[in-house]
Design a protein that fits this description.
The chain has five helices and seven strands, in the order H-E-E-H-E-H-E-E-H-E-E-H. With 209 residues, it is of the alpha/beta class. It folds into two domains: 156 residues, Anticodon-binding domain (Rossmann fold); 41 residues, no CATH class. The longest helix is centred in the first third of the chain and has 17 residues.
Length: 209
């Protein structure tokens, strides 16, 4: 596990995406330093690693609002760090200390890829995954004809792996992290609502906010 803030930011080259309200997030990895004794964060600096400053600002603002909704004090990095140039670890930590910030929350996209779900249309108002009906028939038809069965419907979605790490400013070490898979059928409609809700809830459970 990479526990250095500078290295973590250096690896975070993926663009942060906005997820839809219909997104479903499943935590896959949750870690907390068993030796961390700092208690709840008094004030957190929220950093979203994104290619476009506008996306960074929107998502950071959403994250801050959700943290504040739980009674936590937080500030978006675009409010205190330059958005038009690269900043290094020392500058981030120095700025955090001047502002009385004791934790830095860094969120990034690890991987994003498109996948297809195949459904049968049924008399019910819901689509039923083809695997729940006759996966063998579907596979045989695909092998024979090279396409899905006429009664099937293909729904494309994005599978996005996201990660948030919490760093203690005084030690410059990671003390907590959460990684998740999020399935998205639409983009750019709500700001990471599904993922951020999971992160904030888990931070609360782990008594960090």
């Amino acid at each position: 596990m990479n526990n250095n803030l500078g290295k973590f930011l250096g690896l975070a080259i993926s663009c942060m995406l906005l997820l839809a309200s219909c997104a479903m997030t499943t935590p896959t990895k949750i870690w907390k330093d068993p030796y961390y004794v700092g208690g709840t964060f008094k004030k957190a600096l929220v950093i979203v690693v994104a290619k476009h400053p506008s996306i960074r600002e929107l998502v950071e603002n959403e994250f801050v609002l959700k943290l504040q909704g739980q009674g936590a004090d937080a500030v978006a990095s675009h409010m205190v760090l330059a958005t038009d140039k690269k900043v290094d670890r020392k500058f981030i930590l120095s700025t955090a200390q001047k502002l009385g910030i004791d934790a830095v929350l860094v969120t990034r996209v690890i991987e994003a890829k498109e996948k297809d779900d195949v459904y049968y249309e049924t008399a019910s108002p819901y689509r039923v995954p083809i695997a729940t009906l006759n996966a063998k028939l579907h596979e045989e038809y695909m092998q024979k004809h090279g396409k899905v069965h006429p009664s099937a419907v293909i729904a494309r979605f994005k599978e996005i792996i996201l990660e948030t790490k919490a760093y203690e400013v005084v030690s410059d070490k990671a003390v907590w992290s959460l990684e998740s898979d999020t399935r998205v059928q639409d983009t750019f409609s709500k700001l990471l609502s599904s993922y951020l809700d999971v992160v904030v809830k888990r931070l609360t459970v782990d008594k960090l906010i």
